[in-house]
């Protein structure tokens, strides 16, 4: 069907405008975490926000007030989880992935590459993107919690203070 009636189209336009504005306000209230690189929890929340907005816009049995309440509740849940993960290590451990060393002092960690489903050529590409040509000169490549690859090229990995927490976690895993 190509066209139902003008009142339905007007309803959709009003809900789109209202939902759009409400989503912007809630995303701003939710803070930078909702707009930054995602961890798994942030990604799920963002997808859910889009789904709620789409359902509110397109389904006549979902009112604007119900959709806005769902958006607000999900944003509040996101803020609550962020607060809990910053205060209690149990929540941080349960909701966030840990960074993992994939290469240390020029040597690939094959088990870590397999576990994280990362190929050597992806690590090499990250090294090149950071302007380095020799794997042997790289102190560490870390797969961060958000999925990005960090390349450290200053001295030995054990001497890099920015790697302390990752190295501690790495030592526990061995």
UniProtKB/TrEMBL annotation:
Domain YetF-like N-terminal transmembrane: 17-83
Pfam family, one: DUF421
Residues passing through the membrane, by range: 6-26, 38-59, 71-95
Keywords, comma-separated and alphabetical: Cell membrane, Membrane, Transmembrane, Transmembrane helix
Principal subcellular localization: membrane
Keyword Cell membrane: yes
Membrane-related topology note: Multi-pass membrane protein
Compartment(s) where it occurs, according to its Swiss-Prot or TrEMBL record: Cell membrane
Gene Ontology terms: cellular component: plasma membrane
Domain YetF C-terminal: 87-156
Transmembrane helix as UniProt keyword: yes
Matching PANTHER family: UPF0702 TRANSMEMBRANE PROTEIN YCAP (PTHR34582)
Family note: Belongs to the UPF0702 family.
Protein name: DUF421 domain-containing protein
